[in-house]
Write a structure and sequence with these properties.
The chain has about 375 residues and is mostly beta strands. Helices cover about 15% and strands about 35% of the residues. The chain has helices at about 55-60, 65-70, 105, 250-260, 280-285, 305, 335-345, and strands at about 10, 75-80, 85-95, 100, 110-115, 120-130, 135-140, 165-170, 175-190, 200-205, 215-220, 225-230, 245-250, 270, 270-275, 295-300, 320-325, 330, 350-355, 360-365, 370.
Length: about 375
Amino acid sequence: MSEPWVQKVGIGSFIVASMLVGGVVTALVAGDGGGTGAPAVVSATAATEGTVQNSGDAAAASLPDLIADVRRSVVVVTASGGGNATSGGTGSVIDRDGHILTNFHVIEGMSNLKVTLADGTAAVATVVGTDPGSDLAVLKVDLPSHLLIPVRMADSDRVRVGDAVFAIGHPFGQNFTVTSGIISATGRVTESAFTGRGIRDVLQVDAAVNPGNSGGPLFTTAGEMVGVNTSIENPNGRFFVGLGFAVPSNTVLRFLPAMIAGETIEHPQLGVSVQALDDVNAATFGVSTSRGLYVLQVTAGSAAERAGVLPGSTGSGQGGDVILAINGEAMESFEALARAIDRAEVGDVMSLRVRRGAEEMTLEATLQPWDLR
């Protein structure tokens, strides 16, 4: 497998040419970071009067009361571009300064943006920062701070399969629709249609999400946003089949400060395509070890090529390099490699322990930015 990966279908927006037809974007999803407390740009207790302040209070509140409370942090995002093209999705209020979080594919290519709050207040929005590789974007509106009710972020690392969740969004233009379900799985991967980069540790949910839900919040029953709804598995069209995906809140928190600051976000890339070894395929590849990652391809000009990593070829009997460990961590699956790279930053030096024939050696690879071309 190579570093990018499973393709999903984006749920973000309707694309309209003189009439609503509902085109769907191939989804990105996003990125990482954060802990039980939110960083400076997001207050973990930023909610206003009447808003649930902690899990204990949430447990005492009825679900309708909780939904009525947190929906004040949810917004409708509408956009238009050249010709008659328009797009629609969902967003979340991040702070009282007017920052709004949504999916990149909701606003990509659009020039006229509008945000509408739950009380009907509308304002023109501008884009202040984006992370196409994570399918995230931050908008800015100029509204009185008392109208802006920020979401509270959950620690997505604490999510368990079976946890109850609910989504608020605008599927097919049906504003502020609520759907509920559970976390079906964690650690999934979806792909950015804009970069080809895999977005890791995505949450899988069975709460119904459809075109128009993109960019909207996935809430826990404590009223905290645990993810940003971004894509669906959809082999036969653009309708929900029970497999939705959300960028985890910790991914959002990792890149949110840079997006708010308008900085260019770069994701690291090693530049290899690999196959996990086992007792059967090791002989096919002509290598003497049955553990590690056999290097099938090395991208020209990549960090791996510059470090001297050598590829082999399937069925040739000519063994290439086998990556045994990165920074001392054993590499026995593609996911282990992808996560190790994804946790790093562009410019970090990775120590690769490789086997080449009967010899083991250490190579130093300086990670480069993901090629967005």
